[in-house]
Amino acid sequence: MPASERAVELLTAAAEAAHDKKAENVLAFDVSEQLAITDAFLVASASNDRQVRAIVDAIEDKLREDFDAKPVRREGAREGRWVLLDYLEIVIHVQHDEERSFYSLERLWRDCPVIPLPSPVPGVPTD
């Protein structure tokens, strides 16, 4: 069974919030066939710890405001190197570029279908 409609809506909103904070390489995977605990993963990265935290804050604000959704678990926020937000339907990974390169989650989940996400519009300010 593919990712639920709500999971895709949450992913799309989270991706938009991440793009607004200049997240890089934002990707989403439908992991519903491989994992029973969630429908999809969103992976994004940033070049420094401060930006990782800003992206995470923007995602949490957007999902809370638009969907009244709060993560049931939030890990790694203090260090700002790899923050995991668990919303049950989706799990969001915001990683520092170094962690993203080392752990390569997209390689680990490469057999899972990619979920199309909106791209930022070139030349349009996102702040």
From TrEMBL:
Pfam name, any one: RsfS
InterPro entries linked: Iojap/RsfS/C7orf30, NT_sf
SUPFAM superfamilies associated with the record: Nucleotidyltransferase (SSF81301)
Main localization, broad class: cytoplasm
Transmembrane segments: none
Subunit structure: Interacts with ribosomal protein uL14 (rplN).
Protein name in UniProt: Ribosomal silencing factor RsfS
Species per Swiss-Prot/TrEMBL record: Kribbella lupini
